[in-house]
């Protein structure tokens, strides 16, 4: 299915008609596919851009026509060019104190600042 954008932003109802799925399906896909994150307007309504709609059509094709599972489609999308790479998990180094020690340090520093402010 070829999509030709006619405007910059689309409401969820319009996107449902274009993609051919219900609104609850679109919202579910948003929770399953990290690349799909339409911004919300001031009223809190999702505003889909043409690139979001193209991604939705691609997801629909993977799921409904090619028979991928959600997990399979997610994996395929992440392997495609243009996919945002996941940042590597941050490993704790020896130079970094453990989180409990760091919290203790911060608390001590804040108490010192409070003491200095109380003197003035």
Brief rundown of the structure:
Helices cover 54% and strands 0% of the residues. It has 120 residues and is mainly alpha-helical.
SSE inventory with pairings:
Elements: H1 12-19, H2 23-32, H3 50-65, H4 70-79, H5 99-119
Kindly describe this structure.
With 120 residues, the protein is an all-alpha fold. The protein has a domain at 12-79: Multidrug-efflux Transporter Regulator, Chain: A, Domain 2 (Orthogonal Bundle), CATH 1.10.1660.10. Helices cover 54% and strands 0% of the residues. It has helices at residues 12-19, 23-32, 50-65, 70-79, 99-119. The radius of gyration is 23 Å and the shape is elongated.
Task: Provide key terms for this protein.
mainly alpha; 5 helices
